[in-house]
Amino acid sequence: MKTIKTVCVVGGDTRQIYTARRLAEHGLAVCVWGFEDFGGELPVPSVPSPREAMACDAAVLPLPCTKNGRALNAPFAREELSLRELETLVRPGAVVFPGMAPEGLIKTLSAKGAEVFDYYRDEALTVKNALLTAEGILGIVIEKTPITVWRMKAAVTGYGRVSYFVCRALKALGAEVTVYARSPAQRAKAETACLRTEAIGDLPGQTDRYDVIVNTVPAPVVTAEAVRNARPDCLIVEAAGAPYGVDFEACKQYGRELVKAFSQPGKTAPGTAGILIADTVFGMIKEANL
Questions:
Q1: CB of 239 closer than 8 Å to CB of 261
Q2: Residue 59 CA neighbour count, 13 Å, CB half
Q3: Which of 2, 259, 63 is nearest to 143 (CA)?
């Protein structure tokens, strides 16, 4: 039976600093790589090279693992670590914990004999991460609008995890929230939460009703027509990942304020987000008897 004693947190943003600290609190010997330009004090030792990082019993990779599909997501690193190089450094029998990893990376590492556990596939983590995302979006809405959330008219597209928490937060502060969803089942769930609902195809002709539009659907739903019909002072928040749902060019063309609310947990609550990642990874280690 494997015993994981040493762990390296490889790359990532401020969240991973808190991840490293929390894993050390769990009793593991933890180091980091890829934080040369962090600018603050690190809670654990730093190793000078990716090779030394991958020599540990286990490696915890960032969330998301990559932003461009080519290199590790490591904004504080002085050198880029390509996914191809990462694959060569992983030893047979190594244990790797990526977050939201490309399928190709998982298959390649597994083929080399590594044990790969994508911690973002943990349902509890994704739900909690959605709550942190919604909190960040609420902060954007409060900061970027000249009116109170109370009595604000807000449209939210989709009714998945993030949308659920966004709607709940806005409604709790007195906003009038309408959910635009394609699925009748999603609309039914929203209605049982005492939210107004509309079919998502009706959004373009109704955007002039709203002070804020929050998109959580990674498909073209906030179209050029929807943007054009929106009020001049309407705030549009893009919370979906690629291929996105808001027509960015239309926002520029018609002068609508657009905020791209990506990676909110890492920006607004890196401490909590990092602790959640660490606790999830440590739980996976215990569950797999590693």
A1: yes
A2: 30
A3: 259
Contact yes or no for 249/276 (Cβ under 8 A): no
**pLDDT tens digits along 29-44:** 999 999 999 999 999 9
Could you give the domains of the chain? 6-121+269-287 (3.40.50.720), 125-255 (3.40.50.720)
Q: Which two tokens stand for residue 165?
A: 């928490």
In DSSP terms, which residues pair with 8 in a beta bridge? 31, 59
pTM of the predicted model as reported, rounded to 2 decimal places:
0.91
Could you read off the pLDDT of 76-105 as tens digits, one per residue? 999 999 999 999 999 999 999 999 999 999
